[in-house]
Amino acid sequence: MRTQLRLLRYVRPHWRALVTILLTMGLATGLEVLRPWPTKLLVDQVLGQQRPPAGLSRLVAALPGPAGVAGLLLWVCASVVVIFLAGSLVSMANTSASVRLGQRMVYDLGADLFLHLQRLSLVFHSRRPVGDTVARVTGDPYCVQLLVTGALLPLLQSAVLLITMFAIMWRLEPTITLLSLGVAPFLMLAIRVFGEPMQNRNRERRELEVRMMSLVQQTLSAIPAVQAFTREELEHARFRDCADDTVAAYERAIAADMWFKLAVGLVTAVGTAAIMWLGAQYVLAGKMSVGSSIPSRIRPRPCSMRPRTRIGCSRSSTRLPTCGTCPRRERRACWDTCATRT
Q1: Phi, psi of 301 (to 5 degrees)
Q2: Which of residues 335 and 114 earns the better pLDDT score?
Q3: Has this prediction a pTM greater than 0.70?
């Protein structure tokens, strides 16, 4: 956790992109909240012939087009298109700013890690394969992008969206709101159960990828000796064995991910079914309108709750043997120190 907090210093030089992301996140949250309301107005005020709120009636009257229900229907249909276009533009701006922020942080961290590696002693470099070192400089810095734009910012957006939706749902029907909150402990339990296995299997996969890169680098660096001693087939067999292990690790990581998605999807489906049943009972009893039950069934997508499994970035493979010849500061893993600007 301390290392991950130190990584946040790479956000500071790119605060403009961060501000853009936060602004677009706020707009996206507002548009997501507005998305089910055209359907509610269509069901209640247009098809159900219920009296629209006074403010809505004045707004429709001020807009161009026919008056009454026909005008309301026209603008309800138009609002669907407007919300879609606005959401798409906001999403494009958010994606552009996120990519810019993420890539800048990745290469800042990679540059600091590259500088740090150059300052380590020859003893360190003699004990680490060059391929492993290259993988650490070019691959592991992506964890800062995943930490910020793949975990912290989506978590913030999901929290704001949930709070906003629950506030609106509470005004519509408190009981259904409390029922929707009941699924949260089961979602947290799924993250608790599947989070660590997913992290361990993704770390194992990353270690095997690095080992494969090191094998290729060592073989190509010694290609005169490989050809002189006719070791081509042997090196090919070593690569195939490493590739088989990597594929197996990928399959284990994907299996853990699929089981997590199954658990989250099942909890979400059961919660949605319970809300639909209770909402239908209230509609049949006349306690709420058909349109009012629509926003209560709109739930945020659970994909943002997926545990982020690569933030650790495979710390174990960068550790040195604890020998007496290496200074203590160089026995530490490169990854433990790369977040500190040298």
Answers
A1: -65, 135
A2: 114
A3: no
Contact 272, 297 (CB under 8 A): yes
Residue 185: strand, helix, or coil: helix
- If you ran DSSP here, which 8-state letter would residue 310 be given? S
pLDDT of residue 88: 93
How far apart are alpha carbons 183 and 193 in whole angstroms?
Answer: 16
- Domains along the sequence of the chain with CATH: 2-337 (1.20.1560.10)
pLDDT per residue over 50-76, tens digit each? 777 777 777 777 778 777 778 788 888
Q: Could you tell me which residues come within 8 angstroms of residue 46 by beta carbon, excluding any fewer than 6 positions away?
A: 69, 72, 73, 76
Q: 201: buried, middle or exposed (CB in 10 Å: 19+, 13-18, 0-12)?
A: buried
Instruction: Kindly state the tokens that stand for 41.
Output: 């107005």
pLDDT digits (tens, 9 = 90+) for 213-237: 888 888 888 899 889 888 999 999 9
Residues making up the chain, counted from first to last: 342
- Distance (Å) of CA 20 to CA 93, 153, 157: 8, 12, 14
First-to-final CA distance of the chain: 20
